[in-house]
Amino acid sequence: MSPDENNQLVEEDLSLSEFLVPDTPEIKEIKSIYEREHEYSEYLGEIEFSIADYYYNENRKVTDKDFIRALKNIKQNRDKPISFFEKPLEKEIVKSLFEPLEENPLYDHEFTLVLDYVLWVIDNRSWLEGKQAYVKWITYVLGFLSESEEKKYESQFKKFARKMGVSGAQVDMLLMKKDAEDLFEDGDLFEEGSLFENLSPEDIFGEDRTADDLETGFCLMTDEEKFDFLLDKGPDYIELVQDYIMELEGKENFDKIQDFYKKFNEKHRNFPPLHLIIGTAYVGKDPALAKSYFEEALRSVQESKEFPEEIKEDLKSHIDLLTSLLLEEATEKVEEKAGEGKKGKKTCKSGKKTPKKDSESKTNV
Question: Which among 71, 113, 64 is positioned nearest to 96, based on CA atoms?
Fold first, then answer.
């Protein structure tokens, strides 16, 4: 085996958590790395470079959502060896982080904040056109594009920006051709009709900016902040509610799911999407309970005139499917019990024969 092959095998057994330091109470107090990006630039740079490199050189069809899923999976399974990750883009990101983490280890909480920050940046480009808004932007910014590709991207970007009412100065900032601070020298930045018309410079770059000011900052919140935010504004952010519940389901934190469900229902009566989301979370754990949530969603929908028949039919199909699964599960349990009963009888018969053989052997002796 060559040294390179041996190194590759060793690398496959490594996990990111091996390079992470246990958290201290002080470290856990950090809410985000916003406005501290320079302290984590080597890690952010590796992740961004891996994303751009994978898109440009490996797969031009990959979307922002693919990278969001990859980063979330890495975050949740940072204690797993690299061989655990099946998708090439996940492996590339994980591998890229070994060297900087080996040279300068991070606290575990810091590492999750780095990933959260990249997730926030991806989401913060979602106002741009298309499913590859961020990945195309970062590929452009990092200089992967050829001269002709770069000109084409700039042309498309500026054309879309004009439709959105973004000024030339703002476009330069978004294309990383001008520092954010320089924008305040341009008179049109906060004028009527501009992108930041109703915001002051402090609103955008000030220290008081918090994650819950924007939907795009949701991933920067702590678990408790997410819980409270969605409890209050969940009906306006259904996708975030779904992401949050699925995240809890992935951690098998069903007590938290129940707590959220109970408090949300107390505050927002008869909200069908929540029943459906909770039901989906329980399909693998408890099909019977999942079925009850789907039925509750269907009942709420049928009582309302706001929902089209298609949604009602979808719910009915979910319930029918779960019913069939429950019947199969019940049948399997009956068959298992019957099988166990038969095995028990055989054991009993063999038990009666044993003394007979023993007596025969004793007689022969």
Answer: 71
Per residue in 298-336, pLDDT tens?
777 777 666 667 766 766 676 666 666 655 665 665 566
Yes or no: say if 312 and 301 are a contact pair by the CB < 8 Å rule: yes
Amino acid (one-letter) located at 153: Y
Q: Which of 92, 125, 144 is the last residue of a domain?
A: 144
Report the candidate in 109, 97, 111 with the shortest Cα–Cα distance to residue 50: 97
Helix, strand and coil percent figures for the chain, each rounded to 5: 75, 0, 25
CATH number at residue 229: 1.25.40.10
Taking the C-alpha atoms of residue 68 and residue 65, their distance in angstroms, rounded to an integer, is: 5
Are 230 and 241 in contact by the 8 Å Cβ rule? The answer is yes
3-state SS, residue 21: strand
Residue 163, both tokens: 């439709």
For the entire predicted model, the pTM comes to 0.52
